[in-house]
């Protein structure tokens, strides 16, 4: 799913109670992609790494630097998410609900990423199993997602 949709779904699902919770949930919703491809974009712009060539469509995964693959594994793992959620809960002595937007991000990515490019490693580091879903860029996924988001936000406001 696209990064903005992740933030908006996270915000509406786990940040409705107060404005600060919305922005926390929005941030956790976009965080998995920012920590992988966002860093790649910044490092490429600064000339620190060479990024993949997107001019002919989706590049090969081999053209993406290794650190992006590892960060993607970490940030898209339900195992890592659960560990972090529990640690935060233990530290705060209560759950931090906006953090669930990170888990929602992973759950939404599982069926909306194909094995052609960065399928979701939701069981990492225990398993390399990935689901061959339908790409979020497919019009059958993308446009209903946008329409439903608009409707949900209209109903909310």
Write the layout of secondary structure elements.
Elements: H1 3-14, H2 19-45, H3 66-75, H4 78-92, H5 100-109, H6 139-156
Number of helices: 6
Helix content: 55-70%
- Class based on secondary structure composition and strand pairing: mainly alpha
Q: Which strand-content bin applies to the residues?
A: under 5%
How would you sum up this structure, described in words?
This protein has about 160 residues and is an all-alpha fold. It is about 60% helix and about 0% strand. The chain contains six helices and no strands. It has helices at about 5-15, 20-45, 65-75, 80-90, 100-110, 140-155. Helix 1 (about 5-15) runs antiparallel to helix 2 and helix 4 (about 80-90) packs antiparallel against helix 5 (about 100-110). It starts with a helix and ends with a helix. The model has no long low-confidence stretch (mean pLDDT about 95).
Describe the structure concisely for a colleague.
Helix content is 59%, strand content 0%. 29% of the residues are buried.
């Amino acid at each position: 799913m696209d990064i903005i949709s992740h933030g908006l779904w996270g915000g509406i699902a786990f940040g409705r109670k107060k404005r600060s919770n919305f922005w926390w949930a929005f941030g956790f919703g976009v965080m998995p992609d920012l920590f992988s491809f966002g860093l790649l974009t910044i490092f490429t712009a600064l000339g620190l790494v060479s990024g993949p060539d997107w001019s002919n469509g989706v590049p090969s995964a081999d053209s993406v630097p290794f650190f992006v693959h590892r960060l993607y594994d970490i940030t898209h793992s339900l195992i890592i998410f659960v560990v972090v959620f529990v640690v935060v809960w233990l530290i705060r002595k209560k759950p931090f609900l906006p953090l669930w937007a990170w888990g929602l991000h992973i759950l939404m990515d599982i069926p909306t990423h194909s094995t052609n490019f960065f399928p979701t490693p939701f069981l990492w580091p225990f398993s390399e199993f990935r689901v061959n879903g339908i790409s979020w860029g497919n019009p059958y996924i993308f446009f209903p997602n946008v329409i439903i988001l608009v409707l949900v936000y209209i109903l909310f406001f």
